[in-house]
Amino acid sequence: MRIGVDLGGTKIEVIALDDHGTTLLRRRVPTPTGDYVGTVDAIAGLVFSAEKEIGELGTVGVATPGAISLRTGLIKNSNSTALNGKPLDRDIMTKLGRAVRLENDANCFALSEAVDGAAAGANIVFGVILGTGVGGGVSVNKRPLTGHNRIAGEWGHNPLPWANEGERLSTRCYCGKPDCIETFLSGAGLAREYRNHTGNNYTAQEIALAANAGNEDARECLKTYQDRLARSLASVINMIDPDAIVLGGGLSNIPDLYVGLPDLIATYAFSDGIDSRIVPAAHGDSSGVRGAAWLWPVVSPY
Asked: At what angle are helices 187-198 and 216-240 packed, to 10 degrees?
């Protein structure tokens, strides 16, 4: 049995899978926001509870925002700031009394979709999370590609490619640098674009609904968003040339984003055409937790 845990900003989810990927159990609890010790305790409690209910021990993988620094062994780059500077993997292992594999949540998302999701059968998969932030992860041969500095796939903290005059030096990202892809492709970025265009405060979901209802301002903003997405994905394709790109997160549920997207990417990419599949995630918001479970091969948990 495989157990996966997805540590989110508002919820912690556990899933238990058999070796064929069938879900045996799935539970969620609220994240103890800002409480590191409480978070570790909650993760351990979910794992123990799942194993007790099923009556079997499992391997444990954890998907977390941020990554483990190779220099310090501590969490870095997490937008759940209570985790930064903490030995999260070691503390969870101490609580559980066994080895644990911990990986960035976007890498787990990409892995999940590569193993048995929308990109099943693909060799190189780039997983995209378009939501409150903009995450990215890479799976190669059904294993996460972490990179030497543990930041592989972090496309959201590169500058928006081929930026026009109105897009330069317009917004500073939480990372401290200006005009990151995340500031344009996050839900807040789409809402800001609509507000700048109309003066109205709409959420990303409201903009999508308005566009679907024929609102021309909303349609124009989504068109701008799609162009920025195409530019950003073209730069990724130029670097790793994935077989498939899987979109997840709340904004990935906007159907109009996919219409004509490959052709639009092709106008920016260094190629005579783009054949990479661009698809929505098959497992939705369960992809991260499923990917965490797939971090382990089929072996004993000890």
From this structure: 140
In angstroms, what CA-CA distances link 271 with 126, 205, 237, 260, 279? Answer: 18, 33, 9, 17, 20
Q: Are strands 59-64 and 2-7 parallel, antiparallel or unpaired?
A: parallel
Residue type, position 247, single letter: L
Question: 29: which strand partners?
Answer: 12
pLDDT, greater one: 297 or 81 = 81
Measure Cα distances from 144 to 24, 79, 130 in Å. 24, 21, 19
Structure tokens at 105: 């949540």
Q: How many CB atoms lie within 10 A of CB 77?
A: 16
Task: Read off the amino acid at residue 70.
Answer: L
Residue ranges of E strands in the chain: 2-7, 11-17, 23-30, 59-64, 67-68, 75-76, 101-104, 124-130, 134-140, 143-144, 244-248, 277-280
Domain layout of the chain by residue ranges: 2-108+286-293, 121-281
Q: Is residue 131 packed enough to be buried (19+ CB in 10 Å), middle (13-18) or exposed (0-12)?
A: middle
pLDDT in tens, 19-57: 889 999 999 999 998 999 999 999 999 999 999 999 999
Arithmetic mean of pLDDT, 271-290: 94
pLDDT exceeds cutoff 80 at 299: no
Q: Are 61 and 293 in contact, with CB atoms under 8 Å apart?
A: yes
Q: Which fold has domain 2-108+286-293?
A: Nucleotidyltransferase; domain 5 (3.30.420)
What token pair was written down for 221? 């903003």
Q: Within 13 Å and on the Cβ side, how many CA atoms surround 89?
A: 22
**Tens-digit pLDDT profile for residues 78-110:** 878 899 999 999 999 999 999 999 999 999 999
Query: Looking at this protein, which amino acid is placed at residue 213?
Result: A
Cβ 281 vs Cβ 117: under 8 Å: yes
Fold of 121-281: Nucleotidyltransferase; domain 5 (3.30.420)
